[in-house]
Design goal:
Elements (H helix, E strand, L loop, with lengths): L9 H4 L8 E2 L6 H12 L4 E5 L8 E7 L4 E7 L5 E5 L14 E3 L4 E2 L6 E2 L5 E3 L18 E7 L2 E5 L8 H5 L1 H6 L8 E10 L3 H8 L5 H4 L20 E5 L2 E6 L9 H7 L17 E6 L3 E6 L6 E11 L2 E10 L5 H33 L5 E2 L6 H15 L2
Antiparallel strand pairs: 1-19, 2-11, 3-4, 3-6, 4-5, 5-10, 7-8, 8-9, 10-11, 12-18, 13-14, 14-15, 15-16, 16-17, 17-18
Helix pairs in contact: 5-8, 7-8
C-alpha cells in the first residue's frame, strides 16, 4: 500500500503544471475545433479498437472518424497482419465498405463500379480493365494508414509520417501496462451515447474524483470517500509525455448496497485475475487525446473499461464505453458482472447528463475560465498539452 500524499502535493510533485484558471474558449469556439482536426487528431496516434474485433483472417471493422473527416477500414489480412486503410475506393472516391463490421468474402467490392480489393488492400479486379489507359493495378490499391498495435489495442496515425512510433508516443503508460493481461478479458458490453457537449468537456468531467461524493451519492454511495469521510483523494498521480495516470482506493468502510451485498453472498466462482501494473483499486489512464483505460480491482478480481470520446462538432461528442471481464465460470459470476455493468452504466448516465449541463454553461460565456484545485491537476495537464499542440505550426 502506498502512502497517500497530503493536500496540495500534486502541484509540488509536478511544479511545471500551472495552478491558474483554465480557459473555457477552447471548449466553445468553432474556429478552435476546426484547428483541432489537424493539429490534434490528424497528428497523433488514435486508438480505434482492439485486435479481438479482427480475431480471424478476413475479419474487419469500419471506424468513422468525423473529426478527421475520414472513414477507416481495419482488417486482418490472409497473412494474419492487421492493417488500416482509408475506406475509399481509389477509382472515383466512393465509400468502399458500408457495413460496420464483418468478414471479407474473399474481396472487398465497390458498389459503384465493382472494383475489388484483397484483405491486404491490393487491387484484385477491374471490370472492363482493357478499356483503361495503361492501368497499373499495383498503384491503385487501398490507401494505407499507419497502424500499430500495443497490448491488443489498435492505433492509427493519419499523418503522412508519424512524428513518433506508437511506443515512443505512449512512453510511461506502455512501460506501466506492458503485459498487464488485457487479453485475458472479453468484451461483454458496448454503450454509445451522443452528447451535446465538446469532447474536452466530457473528458474533463471524468478526469477527477472531486465530483464523486456529490454527483454520484446515490449510485456509488460512500465507495470512494477517504478524507474525513466526505471527500475523495488520489492515491497517486503520474504524468507521462502527453498522458496522465491517476489512481485511488475503495473506502475500506464502504457499506454495500442491498443488491451488492446479496451478490457478494452468493456462491460463485472468484475472479482470480490480477492485472500487472495496477496501482490502486481504480486506475485511470488518459491516453492523449481521446482514449481512457480504466482498471478496476479489489476483492472480486480485476476487469477493465475503455472510453473513447469521438468529436462530431464543437458541441457534439460520441462517448463510447466498452466493458471487459474475464470469462464467467458460473451463473453467479455472470450475474455479478451484469450487476456491475448496470451500476456503472447508471453512474455514467448521471455523468452524460452533467456533461451537457456543463457545456450549456460554458456556451453562455458567463466566465472566460474555470478555477481548479490540486486534485484536478490532470485536467490542467490535459489542457496544457492541448494548448501546446495547438500552438505548433
Amino acid at each position: 500500500m502506498q502512502t497517500r500524499m497530503i493536500d496540495k502535493q500534486w502541484s509540488k510533485k509536478y511544479p511545471h503544471v500551472g495552478k491558474g484558471p483554465v480557459a473555457t474558449e477552447p471548449c466553445v469556439s468553432p474556429e478552435y475545433f476546426e484547428h483541432e482536426r489537424e493539429r490534434i487528431f490528424r497528428r497523433h496516434w488514435i486508438n480505434v479498437g482492439r485486435t479481438d474485433e479482427v480475431a480471424e483472417n478476413g475479419h474487419y471493422f469500419v471506424r468513422e472518424l468525423a473529426v478527421c473527416k475520414a472513414s477507416v477500414l481495419v482488417v486482418r489480412g490472409n497473412d494474419g497482419e492487421v492493417r488500416a486503410f482509408h475506406n475509399v475506393c481509389p477509382h472515383r472516391g466512393n465509400t468502399l465498405v458500408l457495413n460496420e463490421a464483418g468478414k471479407c468474402p474473399g474481396r472487398f467490392g465497390c458498389g459503384f463500379h465493382s472494383w475489388a480489393f484483397s484483405p491486404e488492400g491490393e487491387l484484385a479486379f477491374v471490370p472492363d480493365e482493357e478499356n483503361f489507359f495503361d492501368l497499373d493495378k499495383s498503384k491503385y490499391g487501398l490507401s494505407p494508414i499507419h497502424c500499430e498495435i500495443w497490448e491488443g489495442f489498435i492505433f492509427i496515425n493519419l499523418a503522412s509520417a508519424p512524428e513518433q512510433s506508437l511506443r515512443e508516443f505512449l512512453g510511461g503508460v506502455a512501460t506501466q501496462l506492458d503485459g498487464a493481461g488485457f487479453e485475458q478479458m472479453r468484451r461483454i458490453r458496448t454503450y454509445k451515447v451522443e452528447e451535446q457537449a465538446n469532447w474536452k468537456t466530457a473528458i474533463d468531467a471524468q478526469n477527477e474524483l472531486y465530483h464523486l461524493p456529490f454527483q454520484h451519492r446515490y449510485t456509488l454511495g460512500d465507495s470512494f470517500l477517504l478524507k474525513d469521510n466526505k471527500y475523495c483523494r488520489f492515491l497517486d498521480v503520474n504524468l507521462h509525455n502527453y498522458h496522465s495516470v491517476w489512481s485511488c482506493e475503495v473506502n475500506p468502510n464502504h457499506v454495500p448496497l442491498p443488491t451488492e451485498a446479496l451478490l457478494q453472498g452468493m456462491d460463485h466462482a472468484k475472479n482470480e485475475i490480477r492485472m500487472k501494473g495496477r496501482i490502486g483499486d481504480f486506475d485511470w489512464y488518459l491516453i492523449f487525446p481521446n482514449t481512457v483505460i480504466l482498471l478496476f480491482g479489489g476483492g472480486s478480481g480485476d476487469w477493465f473499461v475503455t472510453y473513447n470520446f469521438w468529436p462530431l462538432a464543437v458541441d457534439r461528442t460520441i462517448w463510447e464505453m466498452r466493458y471487459h471481464f474475464p470469462p464467467a465460470e458460473n451463473v453467479g459470476q455472470r450475474l455479478a458482472q451484469e450487476w456491475t455493468i448496470g451500476r456503472l452504466r447508471d453512474t455514467l448516465m448521471e455523468d452524460a447528463f452533467q456533461h451537457e449541463k456543463i457545456q450549456k454553461g460554458l456556451d453562455a460565456r458567463a466566465r472566460p475560465d474555470m478555477v481548479m484545485q490540486d486534485e484536478e491537476i490532470c485536467i490542467r495537464y490535459f489542457h496544457e498539452n492541448i494548448e501546446r499542440e495547438m500552438a505548433r505550426p
